[in-house]
Amino acid sequence: MKLLVPVKRVVDYNVKVRVKSDQTGVELAGVKMAMNPFDEIAIEEAVRLKEKGVATEIVVVSIGVAACQETIRTALAMGADRGILVETDASPEPLAVAKMLRALVAKEEPGLVIMGKQAIDDDMNATGQMLAALLGWPQGTFASKIAIEGDTATVTREVDGGLETVALTMPAIITADLRLNEPRYASLPNIMKARKKPIETVKPADLGVDPAPRLTTLKVVEPPTRVAGKKVGSVAELVGKLRTEAKVI
Ligand code: AMP
After folding, report:
1. Fewer CB within 10 A of the terminal residue: the chain, N end or C end?
2. What is the C-alpha to C-alpha distance for residues 123 and 146, in angstroms, rounded to an integer?
3. Nearest-CA residue for atom 16 of ligand 1
């Protein structure tokens, strides 16, 4: 079975993002970029399925600027087999990404698409669900456990207040949550090997998709800065301040 794993290049999660002075977005110039953490988890799961003999090939896709090649190389070093870069300078929104992935699914015919539940830059949590809808495929979102048997994928989902287990008839879409696994670090020999693995480059137009955004960002602002705490001299003063200043009691 072939697996398709979409991976997004985002600002590294360790970086403290700064809003641009004109409030049109966040500063990307000179900022360290990395694979979206949930996509690393998706790649790890795909590699484990290949190691178990369930999957035969892992194709990784990234949509974005030419530097997304680096993100694809990271996935190849973790154990994916080949990459597809859909090169565009636009920052495609979930619907456009889902349409491009639909076109690639039609071409590659994977048995399973495993992707991140959410990209940490736009926090959309939408692409997997949109792709499932466009394809008419079943979806198992927020996966914390995946078991494959025959043409059924049993997915344990992290839902509010507990876990839900669903059985999906493949082909299907699965989106990875944080507890699915702990992604491996690529070893130096695997990083070297990944350099020789193939990456094909296509454009959104080749997939029949216009990547132009449909949403207009009106304004991006920093979260309000926390005000400093105050020391109180007595319980009575604390209660008084909670009542008159904080107005919480
Ligand atoms: P989102 O719906 O934007 O929160 O993204 C959910 C998931 O869709 C991500 O974790 C990725 O697996 C995939 N995805 C979103 N945007 C891209 C992109 N530009 N390239 C590749 N995969 C993407």
Report:
1. C
2. 23
3. 8
Which has the closest alpha carbon to 120: 220, 218, 13? 13
CATH number for the region 2-244 comes to 3.40.50.620
Can you give the pLDDT at residue 238?
Answer: 95
| Residues with a CB atom less than 6 Å from ligand 1 | 6-8, 36, 38-39, 61-64, 92, 94, 97, 115-116, 118-119, 122, 124-128
Q: pTM for this structure?
A: 0.92
Q: Which pLDDT score is estimated for 226?
A: 87
Pocket of ligand 1, candidates 4, 10, 36, 68: which has the most ligand atoms within 8 Å of its Cβ, to mutate? 36
CA distance 246 to 240: 9
Per-domain boundaries in the chain: 2-244
Query: Atom 8 (ligand 1): residue with closest C-alpha?
Result: 127
Question: Which stretch of DSSP H or E encloses residue 242?
Answer: helix 235-244
Q: List helix spans (H) across 116-163.
A: 127-135
**If residue 149 lies in a helix (H) or strand (E), which one and from where to where?**
strand 139-149
Closest atom of ligand 1 relative to the 122 alpha carbon: 3
**Residue with the nearest Cα to atom 23 of ligand 1?**
8
Q: pLDDT means per 10 residues in the chain (249 residues)?
A: 98 95 93 98 98 98 98 98 97 97 98 98 97 98 98 97 97 98 97 97 98 93 88 95 91
Give me the pLDDT at residue 223, please.
Answer: 86
Alpha-carbon dihedral 132, 90, 194, 123, rounded to 10 degrees: -50
